[in-house]
Design goal:
Length: 120
């Protein structure tokens, strides 16, 4: 009887140890997942903050043909920026249609490249 009780104690001890290892492993994995979610959230928040704050110097523009000329506005407030000297008749048809509907452009470099390519 004493031998059987001893073995039962050993078996219960082994089961408790295995359960403790499994539970600790599960808690560590859950904590790592939580940290990863927090890191991803912070990174996404920082990226969003950079695009909405003055830290990001990329400007956006809206170009629209008004029937006489192509007018450039700043985004998102649609304030007048400049008039573009573009001959609509020599533009590719798809660019002409985009300008009639309104064309968005990110960055001054892209705007200047576009104007240099299509200006008269």
């Amino acid at each position: 009887m004493e031998n059987r009780t001893k073995w039962m104690g050993v078996v219960i001890g082994i089961i408790v140890a295995i359960l403790a290892v499994v539970i600790i492993g599960w808690l560590i994995a859950a904590n790592n997942d939580h940290d990863m979610i927090i890191d991803e959230t912070e990174t996404t928040y920082e990226m969003l903050e950079n695009t909405t704050s003055g830290n990001n110097n990329v400007k956006s523009f809206y170009l629209k043909y008004d029937g006489e000329k192509v007018v450039i506005y700043t985004e998102p407030d649609k304030l007048f920026y400049d008039n573009a000297d573009i001959n609509m008749e020599v533009l590719p048809p798809e660019i002409r249609e985009q300008l009639k509907l309104g064309m968005y452009m990110d960055g001054e470099d892209n705007l200047y490249d576009f104007l240099q390519t299509y200006s008269s």
